[in-house]
Model the fold of this input.
Amino acid sequence: MLNRIILIIVLTITATTSECQTVFRSVEEVWKYADTHNITIRTINFELKKSGYATKQACSTLLPQVNATGSYTDNIALQTTLIPGPVLGRPAGTYGTLQFGEQFAYAGGINAQMNILNLQNWYSARMARQTEEMNMDSVGATRKSVYQQLATQYYSYLLMQEAARLAEQTTGVADSVYQSASNKYKEGLVNEANVDVAKLNLERAQQTQITAHYQMLTAGNTLKALLGMTLKDSVRIESKLSDNTKADIAEGFKEDPSIRLSLWRAKINLTQYRQANSAFVPTLNILYNYADQRFDKTFEPIDGATGVAGWFPSQYWSLQASWPLFTSGSRYFQSKKNKLNYLESMEQYENAKNQSAINDENIRLNYQKAIAVLAKAEDVMNLSYDNYRHIANRYEAGIAPIDDRLNAFRDYLDYQNQYLNSLSDMLIQLYQVKIRQQYF
Done:
């Protein structure tokens, strides 16, 4: 019975752990997860939504503006007006007093206005739409930057995993060399310097193993931070290094989002230039107004009026034109400045296209070089290890001195480091290729 309870507890813990664990089998899966969890990408998406509202706000200025008004006035004390006496049937030279109006006044109305011709508002709306579309490409540029950070940590994890594997293998060999040298030293067959060299090689291999282990853990934690996870979240990378060393460079690269951003800046600058020129064009508005008012002696706005019960409506419409003829030359110089901004941004756009094409070709060349160098570095490392084994066998047979064995092992460590450096460079070039094949 107790065994069954223990088994159930173990299975429950295992199931809970597996539910909380996130597994990645490729860098593409890491990127896909980051699209919805990385805080930088989530933030830029919020900014994109804000720019969408900004576009609607700018476009709303092209719609008619309608206002409704209403008022209520209580004339507590009506103003007294002097009236010449003859008007009132009195002698000349005398004056009488009268109070005009009613105590209560009610008024209401509707006012509507629409810009028939206002190019500045139209260009502002167009610029807002262009800014929103530019922000879409800005999201792509941000995702590209985040993808590079994620790929760095993902491949660093795989690199350190490979370094730890080699270091573990090397540590075992180095330990056997050290034990053999120690035994030979006790027998008086080798000197103490040889034992020290063997011990140094062992320490060096152990140092590499420790460094690789902790750097692998650090890369995993950094990956969690980039993916919006907590320290307690579990991440497992189920991927072999051999599955992550190839890329099809024949597949075309997608357009770099930085080029699209450069183009949008040029388009916005062009719109700003045209908007500055539109300041020379007159504006034309149409206006309609309807008003209604009523006066009463008592506060009875609906029924039972004792004063003038009727309402007095009025309405009109008009066209309003405005054409600023002189503004001290500010519009002229603003137009000139905006034109230079546009020309400058167009040159930057053309340069960005040329630079991107060169960078893409260099990425292909660097990847091909890294693959070729890595293959040679791996061959050299394997040959060095084979050479060490041959010399070790000759040493065990009493044919080669221990110095040859120690030197051969030291050379193997050096060539192993060269292999890891070449592997690191290849992985960097690999994810550069993969990123350029993504559409942002």
About this structure: Residues 24 and 237 are 5 Å apart (CA to CA). The two ends are 58 Å apart (CA to CA). Residues 69-116+286-322 form one domain.
